[in-house]
Amino acid sequence: MNLVCLSASNIARQNSEDSTSYKICRIVIDAISKGTNEIETNIIELKNRTIQPCVGCGKCFASHRCVQSDDFNRIYAEIIKADLVFIVSPHYAPIPAKLTALLEKMEQVTFLHWGKDHSYQSEVFEKPVGIISHGGGDAQALKSYKRMVNDTIANALDTIQMRVIPFSDEWNTGISLPVKSSTFHDGDIFPAQEYDWDFIVDAVSKYVDQTALLI
Predict the structure, then answer these.
(1) What is the Cα–Cα distance from 91 to 74, expressed in whole angstroms?
(2) pTM for the full model?
(3) Residues 70, 76, 77: CA angle, nearest 5 degrees
(4) Domain range annotation of the chain
(5) What sign has the CA pseudo-torsion 105, 108, 109, 110?
(6) What residues pair up with 193 in beta bridges, in sequence order?
(7) Looking at 34-162, which runs of residues are DSSP E strands?
(8) Strand 128-134 versus strand 175-177 pairing type
(9) What is the number of H-type helices and E-type strands within the chain?
(10) Does position 114 have pLDDT exceeding 90, yes or no?
(11) pLDDT tens across 152-173, in order?
(12) 2-214: CATH topology
């Protein structure tokens, strides 16, 4: 089994070990690797990649690849090869810019062919994908994260013909994780965010278990 986890954080000033998105990807991998060595895992940090926005040139129609972005092509190839994909995304506006660029390029590759032939199946057709969002608000903000982050990503994935793994009837586009506290220290312009990592491990493990039942 091959698992790819996309860490969608844009924060270049953070090391991987300090990135919440990266840490959650690690938790996903630990949960899904439990009890087996027969799994290949790969965390792709989008902050380290160069993915230009789609310019609608149409050159991907022939090659199914982007002539503008080699990094996109490498990531897309990893997603195609994967048996299961997870996307871990913070709440930005509403989702990070590089994740937006990645999704719009995947949509373009798919849509140009589907537009001419509605029976077309993309290279990632029915590939299962889990969505995990997080942000700076407490548990009261979770439903807004679902609406702005999870649902936004899920709508794009539907166009690409990927299959979003639900957690429940209510949380049908993945799960969302709250911050425990958010405070500003003197002189800081960014808040110091603290997460309840025991809670996050438990929540992610339950989602991974649910995912395993559905793939």
Answers:
(1) 25
(2) 0.94
(3) 90
(4) 2-214
(5) positive
(6) 182
(7) 40-45, 84-90, 128-134
(8) parallel
(9) 7, 8
(10) yes
(11) 999 999 999 999 999 999 999 9
(12) Rossmann fold (3.40.50)
